[in-house]
Amino acid sequence: RDRWYEIIFEADTPAGKLFDVLLLIAILLSVLIIMLESVKSLDQEYGQQFGYAEWFFTILFTVEYVARISCARRPLQYVFSFYGVVDLLSILPTWLMFFAPVEMQSLGVIRALRLLRAFRIFKLAHMLSEASELRRAVWASRSKITVFLATVLITVVIEGTALYLIEGDQGSGFTSIPQSMYWAIVTMTTVGYGDIAPVTPLGKFLAAVIMILGYSLIIVPTGIVSAELAHPGGKKSTHWVTTQVCP
Amino acid sequence: RDRWYEIIFEADTPAGKLFDVLLLIAILLSVLIIMLESVKSLDQEYGQQFGYAEWFFTILFTVEYVARISCARRPLQYVFSFYGVVDLLSILPTWLMFFAPVEMQSLGVIRALRLLRAFRIFKLAHMLSEASELRRAVWASRSKITVFLATVLITVVIEGTALYLIEGDQGSGFTSIPQSMYWAIVTMTTVGYGDIAPVTPLGKFLAAVIMILGYSLIIVPTGIVSAELAHPGGKKSTHWVTTQVCP
Amino acid sequence: RDRWYEIIFEADTPAGKLFDVLLLIAILLSVLIIMLESVKSLDQEYGQQFGYAEWFFTILFTVEYVARISCARRPLQYVFSFYGVVDLLSILPTWLMFFAPVEMQSLGVIRALRLLRAFRIFKLAHMLSEASELRRAVWASRSKITVFLATVLITVVIEGTALYLIEGDQGSGFTSIPQSMYWAIVTMTTVGYGDIAPVTPLGKFLAAVIMILGYSLIIVPTGIVSAELAHPGGKKSTHWVTTQVCP
Amino acid sequence: RDRWYEIIFEADTPAGKLFDVLLLIAILLSVLIIMLESVKSLDQEYGQQFGYAEWFFTILFTVEYVARISCARRPLQYVFSFYGVVDLLSILPTWLMFFAPVEMQSLGVIRALRLLRAFRIFKLAHMLSEASELRRAVWASRSKITVFLATVLITVVIEGTALYLIEGDQGSGFTSIPQSMYWAIVTMTTVGYGDIAPVTPLGKFLAAVIMILGYSLIIVPTGIVSAELAHPGGKKSTHWVTTQVCP
């Protein structure tokens, strides 16, 4: 049982690494099939093959799920962990659709959640340290990021309200404050669909202001994480350098 | 009175922090209601409930405003400070609408300005130092940012004028120089609504030039604040390091 | 004459600084009037006032131009310098339109070029050093920027050609290679107007690839200038630090 | 033969540099002609001239190709190298179209691949070291970039599936999961064509979330390469600085 635990849960041994890579390929293939199934023209032609493949992967993942429970040192802890829940959610819909009536068919897309299992890729060797370094840099900047997001959201609400007042009765799509806020986010993040766009001169002026603001604001989080990655520990080490004295 | 001052105006004591958090929640809730009120379908159904909630928050904020004035060490200074004005503006419209005729109803949206009170969030503990560090980095880079914005604006005016000359009589939306400048900002900040877009080959060529310029220009402010955050004090400390000599 | 030279050409003395600031305001005002003149509804109402203002600024700038020539130590050098040509171009069109027949009226927009004079703002005190530091950082990175721009342009040509082959006969706007390249630039710089967009699955896949590429590529110039600003002189100083030895 | 080898394959001698620059100009000119040929109105007017120019460049490049083979120290290695294949592909279509029937005419656009030869520009003197430094910085960050791209792609799949479920039957363009994923990439990279856009409140809310995520995520790769360029060798040298002790 210990040997199986090593293969299934760890990625340090060659066998464990091979298991994780094969599992990753199976996950990606099964997600690909769910995607292709959603394309109507492909579903009509290859619907049956997709069904067979789906059952193949469901049985495979069910076997793996049972193996994980029986190997795990603390089975309950695994079952209620993030990956445990995702593993269950990725096999449940197919079984439910087998026993349940036809009208539950549309639930099948929930299976796409099995892609979340692909996050296991971060367990692989050298990924791990990189991912954790990035996570550390983001974590160390969490207060700065909160300040940044708070500024963005307050700007979005004020700008959204302003454009609702100015353009509300112009038929240009600013029909309510939430709708205007959606436009403000679309504009500030420089996405710019164009389904809603100001038509009055004042509205256009305010839109130009928020665009330049959004275009400039991106510097803030960039600078934060940049500085954090370049100098782990931040201000302290820099201070240390600037105050060093050779006796 | 001193105790109340501590609770209301400061955020160092547990009671002061609790007060600020509760106030923040009340502000966000009251802003949420103003937003939902602006959605016509919701307003027709829940209009009365929204009215009750609005009065609840207005009375709450009025009590708080009176408490702030009576606690403040220098009441007048508070009344004419940024937060004092915002606090007044966030309760005034509801009271005015109560006494005033129906045609002032549309002024109600000004209440959304009470969101500005949410900036008080930056008073909370560890937010404060982060916010002030960001502010310092932006402030230290103010000359560079002015140079950057001046370059952007001059580019926008020249590009706007050029496209007004080229596309003005093509019916593609470049009907005046301000309109063309609006397009130039939309393009340079990479928002790109598509409501105005060049149709002549020369116009498209110039548009491509400004796009690549805008795409490249974002490096400038990013680099500035990045460098400023990584090395507080900038050139000096770096110079110090490169010229140090161990005796 | 020396005193006038100081006032007009330099910005170190109080009088010189005041002259530059006043000139800047006059330039911005006169450009504003040209902009407003291009809005048809405003031109019909205030056309005459705009004409008076235009003559006021033209005479002012003519006086200034003559003063600059008579004060300059080497008048010819000034006349053929960048600012000398711009100064002339900003007054010439109005005089030409005065003597020339009506059909030259449309040339009036060339006057907008007088905005180029606004670049004199960079002469003002502390702007100068900042602007020159930015210019130095950009200049030091010129080879890297060339490599970056060459990569972008080659990608645009290849992607443009590919989508012309794939979508050329789909009526989705990819009518020629230059047109497809215009689309590729619009997409890669994340502007995304939407006037041209792929409709075939293969076209959409290639578009997604170039989007992610463009979204990731922006890191390259950002990193370059960022690193250059943080460490003037670049690798050398860093090396120096890492190899220092205290005896 | 050694002298020719130096001229053709190397860029250190003046003659070798001149050869490379002239070749680059010929490549760019021939690509320009292929582009202009694809514009129908120009092709009808100057079709014959384009044909003559095409033959001129094909013969030129054929001579160069033969020269390269006869000069190369290991001809076979050159023929099967990246540049060898590109060099052949850039002359083959014209010769094939000469001998082959009319219906192969459309293959002519493959000639545009000869632009790939323009990558030879990176052989030129000072470009080389810059390009290799950038390549090194990107290479050193490859694990972090993989983590970043994996996060982006998983987000795109989950968001695409979510919007397919929510908006699938709203006629707003989310007709299949691959189509929704295309939309998610267009949105997350802040391109935002607007040909597909959510219409339901929930869809708009999720779209706003992915926009802010995409807008914030760009910080990650920027920070990575930025830090890598500023501190070649990364953590080690920094650590060295922070732990140095003067005896």
Taking all Cα atoms into account, the compactness measure Rg of chain A is 26 Å
Q: Which H/E pattern describes the elements of chain A?
A: HHHHHHHHHHHH
Largest interface: A-D, 61 and 51 residues
Mean pLDDT of chain A: 77
Shape of chain A: flat
Please estimate the helix content of chain A.
Answer: over 70%
CATH superfamily of the largest domain in chain A: Voltage-gated potassium channels. Chain C
What is the fold-level CATH name, i.e. the topology of the largest domain in chain A? Answer: Four Helix Bundle (Hemerythrin (Met), subunit A)
How many domain modules of chain A?
2
Q: Kindly report how far apart the N and C termini of chain A lie.
A: 61 Å
- State the low-pLDDT regions of chain A, or none: 234-247
Residue fraction in strands of chain A:
under 5%
Assembly level: homotetramer
Question: What's the CATH first level of the largest domain in chain A?
Answer: Mainly Alpha
Overall strand count of chain A: 0
Quickly count the helices of chain A: 12
The CATH architecture of the largest domain in chain A: Up-down Bundle
- Quickly give the structural class of chain A: mainly alpha
Largest beta-sheet characterization of chain A = none
